[in-house]
Amino acid sequence: MFRTRFTEMFGVEHPVVCGGMTAVGTADLVAPVAEAGALGFLAALTQPTPEALAKEIARCRTMTDKPFGVNLTILPTLNPVPYEEYRQAIIEGRVSVVETAGANPAPHLPAFKAAGVKVIHKAVAVRHALKAQQLGVDAVSVDGFECAGHPGEDDIPGLVLLPLAARALHIPIVASGGFADGAGLVAALALGADAINMGTRFVATTEAPVHDAVKQQIVANSERDTVLVFRQFRNTARVARNAVSEEILELSARADATFADIAHLASGTRGRENVLAGGDVDAGMWWAGQSQGLIDDVASCREVIDRIVDEAELIIRQRLAATLA
């Protein structure tokens, strides 16, 4: 068993996190993660209204009595999002921890702090993590270049980013991007992190509420089967390599390209309905990290978490101990 600042602060058995994932972070996935001793996050904005989020929190509580959190991603949108109402649903749902991402979490911190809710903020650079620490968050999740989703524009991999963050910060660090096995957990701890965050690995679990074709595609894919889209618009995102993401790259490469040229391809609705629900892995854009290359099977959340922890302990006790003999 690993005891770290993270496990102590958040009251979980293992230093493993299932971060909030749009259309994936529901009680069906988060409750089994919690039952296996890790910390999972419901995705607030996957729920269409704050009232729906309140019901999803309550549903998760019927499935586990162990700690779980809610992810609140704060991004500019065409249609205003009632973030204050989502925040209130989290507080009234007696959720103990929130994962914030996207924009500055400062407007939400006073209310969360007053309610005793701990906050983990996702950052893609040391300077952003330092700012979050100054604002008073309880921990930071540091995303390396390998991650699915938005890795920022600096292209710094975890091997460099994590020890730099550990030098600069005094609050717990969650290592994110490229993690899928026990060796990754050991490496993250050695680099100064207190836990690992996984997204792609948890998509390829039996409980994840996505079509099995997506899970099997993750298993089949290698570490080379992702692409970086939206780079020209300074909103870089790592997604699975497929027909749609390749078309986005082609259209974006034109000198006069605008986001309007690719918006129909990048539609979140298209990815959710056609890919995650429908199972056509070439019919929309979907998120995946380079950790695909480390994923060899679709397993239950408990099997994934137990395997990672057991492998990490074995590496420390045998392989690393032998090098010191």
Summarize the structure in words:
With 325 residues, the protein is an alpha/beta fold. The protein folds into 2 domains: 5-209, Aldolase class I (TIM Barrel), CATH 3.20.20.70; 226-287, no CATH class. The chain has helices spanning 5-10, 27-35, 50-63, 83-92, 109-114, 126-135, 158-168, 182-190, 200-203, 212-220, 243-252, 263-266, 268-277, 301-323; strands at residues 16-18, 39-43, 69-74, 97-102, 118-123, 139-143, 173-176, 195-198, 226-229, 237-240. An 8-stranded parallel barrel has the order 1-2-3-4-5-6-7-8, surrounded by 5 helices. The chain has a two-stranded antiparallel sheet with strand order 9-10. Helix 3 (50-63) packs parallel to helix 4 and helix 8 (182-190) packs across helix 14. The mean pLDDT is 96.
Q: What is the structure about, briefly put?
A:
By secondary structure, the chain is an alpha/beta fold. The protein contains 14 helices and 10 strands. The strands form 2 sheets. It has an 8-stranded parallel beta barrel, surrounded by 5 helices. The chain has a two-stranded antiparallel sheet with strand order 9-10.
Per DSSP, the total helix count is 14
Count of the domains: 2
Based on DSSP secondary structure assignment, what is the total number of beta strands? 10
Indicate the CATH architecture of the largest domain: Alpha-Beta Barrel
Distance between the termini: 23 Å
Strand content: 5-15%
What is the H/E order? HEHEHEHEHEHEHEHEHHEEHHHH
Q: Mean of the pLDDT scores?
A: 96
Biggest sheet strand order reads: 1-2-3-4-5-6-7-8
Low-confidence stretches: none
Category by helix and strand content: alpha/beta
Q: What is the CATH H-level superfamily of the largest domain?
A: Aldolase class I
- In the CATH scheme, the class of the largest domain would be Alpha Beta
| Anisotropy-based shape | globular
Helix content: 40-55%
Oligomer: single chain
The fold-level CATH name of the largest domain is: TIM Barrel
Gyration radius (Cα, Å) is 19 Å
